Backbone:
């Protein structure tokens, strides 16, 4: 099990597979390295590095939950690249991971060979934020992963029509763990909710457009779920106007977030990989 220690003493887990151009995968807010399980088979010829952020997956929980923030998580990503001796990597950022990628462009643009933003941009729709705050930090009151899979299929029936139950079962296992006495536990630190509330109350939100503009000289692709409640078509158009070289893809029958093994998503990712080569 691969781990490294951050500058503030946390042990973080990561996966490092394959050979070739380095691709650093950064997951969604409450997710972990399993977020990219469906994409992984389609990245042959790449060295794929998947990080569990602090407080997520198999990584240490932080004593100070307020360190669950984009800038600190960006620093952790840089320290992972340093640990691996990698001067640069292409970053695929899903949701929260895309925000971290924008922070990296603002702080250390020379470390980025390219960026893929998966259903995230510099403007985040209020509807999507409210939905996220409804579940962050709260373990579902469900007996097992099979029930959780059925619940995910029901919740996402409109945004993700036609997705087989087996995929929701895999998603449930990536998000929750069955407890010995029955029920489910979160695969992340529940205090992440406290961090989000505390940061919002302190007015700590960074200027996301300023960070996005730092990507102007970086090869960039943006993928949007056609049914997304977080990245609007209007925001995607603004992103295109400010980054004329932006590769875009809209994935039908997907909300927030596409799984990234859809043909439209893969076409955008491979177009960017070809460009960065």
Residues:
């Amino acid at each position: 099990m691969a781990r490294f220690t951050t500058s503030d003493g946390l042990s973080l887990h990561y996966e490092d597979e394959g050979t070739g151009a380095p691709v650093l995968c950064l997951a969604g807010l409450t997710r972990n390295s399993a977020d990219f399980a469906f994409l992984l088979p389609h990245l042959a010829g790449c060295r794929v590095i998947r990080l569990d952020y602090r407080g997520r997956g198999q990584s240490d929980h932080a004593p100070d939950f307020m360190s669950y923030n984009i800038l600190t998580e960006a620093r952790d990503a840089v320290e992972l690249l340093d640990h691996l001796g990698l001067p640069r990597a292409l970053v695929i950022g899903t949701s929260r991971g895309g925000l971290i990628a924008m922070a990296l462009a603002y702080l250390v643009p020379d470390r980025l060979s390219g960026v893929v933003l998966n259903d995230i941009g510099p403007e985040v729709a209020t509807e999507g934020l409210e939905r996220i705050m409804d579940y962050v930090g709260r373990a579902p009151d469900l007996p097992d992963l099979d029930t959780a899979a059925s619940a995910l299929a029901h919740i996402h029936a409109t945004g993700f029509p036609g997705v087989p139950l087996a995929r929701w079962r895999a998603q449930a296992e990536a998000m929750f763990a069955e407890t010995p006495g029955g029920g489910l536990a979160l695969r992340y630190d529940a205090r992440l909710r406290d961090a989000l509330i505390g940061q919002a109350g302190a007015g700590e939100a960074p200027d996301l457009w300023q960070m996005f503009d730092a990507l102007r000289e970086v090869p960039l692709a943006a993928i949007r779920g056609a049914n997304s409640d977080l990245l609007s078509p209007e925001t995607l158009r603004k992103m295109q106007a400010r980054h004329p070289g932006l590769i875009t893809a809209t994935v039908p029958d997907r909300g927030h977030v596409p799984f990234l093994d859809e043909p439209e998503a893969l076409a955008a990712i491979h177009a960017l990989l070809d460009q960065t080569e």
The first helix runs from residue 70 to 84. The first strand starts at residue 2 and ends at 5. The chain has a mean pLDDT of 96. Residues 2-136+191-276 form a domain with the Rossmann fold fold (CATH 3.40.50.1820).
